[in-house]
Design goal:
By secondary structure, this protein is α/β, with parallel strands linked by helices. Helix content is 35%, strand content 23%. The relative contact order is 0.10.
Length: 598
């Protein structure tokens, strides 16, 4: 019988073949094949098997000597806090540090009691006893003894693996001047056998993206086993006394001050299963302090979609006019549903709808235009009967006619679900470092994801992140966090995005050379080249009845030409999207580890 991972791989290939065949021969079979394929992607148990295979591969690699970084290896001062631990538990925590394959580190053990573990006395091992003090006080007292290039604070809920420090050190190869080094983490299940030897079972990895300020405002995603440049920590006066959120606070303070991050894309540490999350009061205190320091003290901080995550909503600055640009032709039922959902649902009222008509000749549509314009002064129709249809040019025509400070590009086959959608998008787009803001788009069943950002290099060129996953499916930890957190992403779809008109005009809008496809990704990348970020937020959800107004017979010549042009422009980002962890599969949009043999 084949291995489960091989079986999953075969089923995946078979489902894809059935789906392709079914599209031409049996639409019902195609739907069944797609459903089976997407169910497989959501099968988190399969990903646990893939993770075990990944760990075995990493173990073989770790047997090789740790390589030097830039001709030398940075020194690391480890502050291991064992407050509240029994001597046996503290000794096991020390043992996890002692097994590191990386050699350039020294260890300081802090505790709140004299019952400290036995640590072999040497140049690299020393004990500081600070009875009755807080974590911040203990770590700050240890800082003068930390003479390494970096300092890392490890607690009793952190599990170091033999290659933890070697993996972090290797991340400095490309950026030896980075101030913070972080990596992925997993969940560690600990057990002590009859010989008092600790056994570790590893599961639920989080393969993290590159530097992502929005995600750091959503959760302490850099993790606890993070290297900080010692001089920066000393200059920042060490840890602040915020129970359970001391390291998150330090990460926010240092990055706000300009500290740069190096990203180890592998898994560098584990958190003990059931480890205490950041207390709610501490998380709110840390985030509100960070937002006030950034000049946005009136943000709303509320619990996020997942435990341990937070939703930061920016207030609207003033009452700017938002111009919603919708290209459309005929498709009476489709465009009526879209426009009427805007007027029936939207709470924020300072908006105009600019419908760019690209050649409608359906009398019902033309009469409906007149009816909507009579009922809503904010509704305008721009005649743009261009042949052949160009999404890029029609959107640019709508933007030229727009009077608003903020543009929202919206497909006519979308449907608004939530009253706050426009205000959330517009307020995000007002942030000075943000360029384009996208949202969670769902298929009409309201359970299947159509878009949660765009990744470069997915399916050769670019793909909608997490497309096909079901909200009620068995998602992996990485999938859940990427789906349900506000975060920076390389690009978002123009099916629904917001952008300041000044920024849109600065780059000249959509490129007409990319008539139908890749124009939205290209726009996001050109805006990013000016120093702005694209942001995805799950706090806004719309339905997307995808491609309802595009003919089934696609212009493949246009598609291939657009792909070639896009690849010639953005080859470097396609090869290495910083927001996509390199260990995840590129043949799928699902943020999963590849199965063996792929």
């Amino acid at each position: 019988m084949p291995e489960p991972s091989d079986l999953a791989s075969r089923v995946t290939r078979s489902a894809k073949k059935l789906a392709r065949a079914g599209l031409e021969k049996a639409p019902g079979a195609a739907r069944l094949a797609r459903t089976s394929y997407f169910a497989l992607l959501n099968w988190s148990a399969t990903q646990q098997i893939a993770y075990r295979a990944w760990l075995q591969m990493r173990a073989r690699e770790a047997e090789q000597p740790a390589r030097a970084v830039g001709g030398s290896s940075p020194t690391v001062s480890v502050v291991l806090d064992v407050a509240g631990q029994s001597p046996a538990a503290a000794a096991r925590a020390v043992a996890r540090v002692l097994v590191q394959t990386y050699e350039n580190w020294d260890l300081t053990v802090t505790s709140d009691t004299l019952a400290t573990p036995h640590v072999p006395r040497s140049r690299r091992h020393r004990i500081v006893v600070l009875e009755g003090s807080t974590l911040a006080q203990r770590v700050n007292a240890a800082l003068p003894r930390c003479d390494g290039d970096f300092v890392v604070v490890v607690g009793p809920d952190d599990v170091l693996y033999p290659d933890s420090f070697a993996t972090l050190a290797a991340a400095l190869t490309d950026d030896p001047n980075a101030d913070i080094v972080y990596g992925g983490d997993d969940v560690a299940v600990l057990a002590v056998d009859h010989r008092d030897v600790e056994q570790v079972a590893r599961r639920d990895p989080f393969f993290k993206p590159g530097w992502n300020p929005e995600l750091l405002h959503t959760m302490p995603y850099l993790g606890t086993v993070t290297w900080f440049r010692t001089s920066q920590v000393v200059a920042a006066e060490g840890l602040h006394d915020i129970q359970g959120a001391e390291l998150w606070d330090l990460q926010l303070r240092l990055t706000r001050g300009g500290a740069t991050c190096a990203h180890a894309e592998g898994i560098v540490a584990g958190r003990v299963v059931g480890a205490s999350p950041v207390p709610d009061a501490s998380a709110i205190e840390v985030l509100e302090a960070a937002l006030a320091a950034e000049g946005t003290p009136t943000c709303t901080v509320a619990p996020g979609h997942l435990p341990g995550t937070w939703s930061v909503r920016y207030p609207m600055s003033g009452e700017p006019l938002v111009s919603i640009v919708i290209p459309s032709k005929n498709a009476f039922d489709v465009v009526r549903r879209c426009v009427e959902s805007i007027y029936a649902t939207t709470a924020y009222q300072s908006f105009e709808v600019i419908l760019v008509d690209t050649g409608s000749d359906d009398p019902a549509v033309l009469r409906w235009y007149e009816d909507v314009a009579a009922r809503h002064e904010s509704f305008r129709v721009i005649d743009w009967p261009e042949q052949p249809f160009s999404y890029a040019r029609s959107c640019n025509a709508g933007a030229d006619a727009a009077r608003g400070e903020i543009l929202v590009m919206l497909n006519n086959d979308t449907e608004v679900l939530e009253p706050s959608w426009l205000e959330v998008l517009a307020a995000e787009a007002q942030q000075p470092e943000v360029g384009v803001v996208g949202c969670l788009l769902l298929y009409p069943d309201r359970l299947t994801v159509q878009h949660a950002g765009i990744g470069l290099g997915i399916k050769t060129v670019a793909g909608n992140s997490l497309s096909g996953l079901r909200l009620d499916g068995r998602l992996t930890r990485t999938q859940e966090l990427m789906l349900w957190t506000r975060r920076a992403t390389t690009a978002v779809t123009a099916a629904c995005f917001a952008v300041r008109k000044a920024v849109y005009d600065q780059v000249g809008g959509f490129d007409p050379e990319l008539r139908i496809t890749f124009n939205d990704v290209d726009l996001c990348l050109r805006i990013a080249a000016l120093g702005y970020r694209s942001v995805y937020t799950p706090d806004v959800r719309l339905l997307h009845h995808e491609s309802k107004t595009i003919a089934p017979s696609r212009d493949w010549t246009e598609l291939f030409a657009a792909a070639d042009l896009f690849k010639s422009r953005w080859a470097a980002v396609i090869a290495r999207d910083p927001q996509l962890n390199r260990h995840l599969a590129r043949t799928t949009t699902s943020y999963r580890l590849p199965f063996r043999g792929h």
